[in-house]
Amino acid sequence: MRKHSSSVVFRFLLSLSVSVLGGIAFTAIHTPIPWLLGPMVFMLLGAQVFKLPLMWPSSVRDYGILIVGYSIGLTLTEDALLGIMHQLPMMLLMTLLLIGFCTLTAYLASKLTPFDFPSLLVGSIPGGLSQMVSLAEEMKSINLTLVTFLQVTRLIMIVFCVPFLLFSPWVGGATVVGTDLVLGTSALWTALFPEIWIYAPLCVIGAWIARKLRFPTAFMLGPMIVMCVIQLTTSMHTPALPSSVLNLSQLMIGSHVGLMLRPEQLQRKTQTVTLALLSSVLLIAGSLGLGYILMHVYSLSAATSLLSMAPGGMDQMSIMAHEVNANLSVVSGYQLFRILFIFFIVSSVLKIVLTRLLRQKEGNSESCSRPSN
Predict the structure, then answer these.
(1) What's the CATH code of the domain at 108?
(2) In terms of Cα–Cα distance, which of 330, 60, 69 is closest to 221?
(3) How many domains does the chain fold into?
């Protein structure tokens, strides 16, 4: 037992060292969001290329997401919430257009590849990795490995490509504006206390309750709701987090994402990898187009529009929004609306439709296998 626990500790410390090294390396070469991309890339290479015994507990990732949830909660002021309510019809329209685009992509891919439409559809819908994988697990005929690989590839592609798009001339060349540059690191750390001793336990309790209620991305929604309620109902000081804490949260999330891709479990590797990359590129292109429409309808910045429509994880998109000084409340509003819409409505509809499709397929195969009189 002691030997097993020491082995787990060694693997975690090794993984932490690899992640920190990735963050330092990406900071040195001045890449966007280095503490998210660096650990992600180094963990992926360490596990798949160098075959290191890396591991990253999901609980560590969850507390990284909790930190991001706290930061988003700070942006949900009364004015921000009124702005989000005003944009609800556009949120619904954009979500439906994105889901329609994903459905069309999955249908075309099913005609051009040997993979079945239900598996491709579940693998293409940007409803959160855990939610889509859970849906695939419930449907026995769906290719779970394909779904997981498509979802993870899309997530990694978006997390890696979107920052470079944000800083490119096409989007307008976003600039990093850190709160530490404005207020000073020591001032931000001093401002955290003593209120953070109250908020931290409340955020953990909020995350726990959200998880018990089976909310999607509970460790983000719980703290978001807690901090939003505190801001709307009290006059208490709600301090911003220093960039070092946000960097730590990026490392905690990026390390987990980097370990999620496991190509050794795939069948038809070349076809699957090609399909995953092409579908991710198409999805990014589609979200760019929708972001362009959003930018002109509401006069938003290019960075805010792109991050609002990017079909990645809400935590990663919020981190990027914070880094480039985009409108965090708008980005989190669009991302949250899409997650909730897909979680509560699309998942149920998908389950009904896919069950009927699979029954029809099984019925057709049975009728074909019956001997003719």
Answers:
(1) 1.20.1530
(2) 69
(3) 1
